[in-house]
Design a protein that fits this description.
single chain, SH3 type barrels, 9 strands, globular
Amino acid sequence: MAIPTPEPGLIISYAYVWDHEARSGQEEGRKDRPCVITLAVERQQDGETLVTVLPVTHRPPKDVAAAVEIPRAVKKHLGLDDERSWVVVSEGDQFVWPGYDLRKVRSTDRYDYGYLPPRFFNDVLKALWAWREAHKATVTPR
């Protein structure tokens, strides 16, 4: 299957590098995980598409404002597992699309899980902007 067009709300499989890993010098993600594209913009200087993603994790957040829990129905719609999961809004990765960390979803020929429903994606964006107003958000350039 072809690499999809990067669009906000699309969940991709990506080798995410957490902020604490990047600060310690790690350059490669330790595991492939679902990540939500929140921004995809074309750079004028070279025509490349710059994408920002937020990671999905099973680990409950220490600060409830740092993540948004994914409803069970949304997880089922995307083909994700049955465990509780959160979209982390306190940090993200930014890279030139498609980048070397884009991965195929396990046991498929696809690079994406599909799109978040618009209402839930808007909830994620609201939480992201609220976090950024109250805290310093971290975006790791890759």
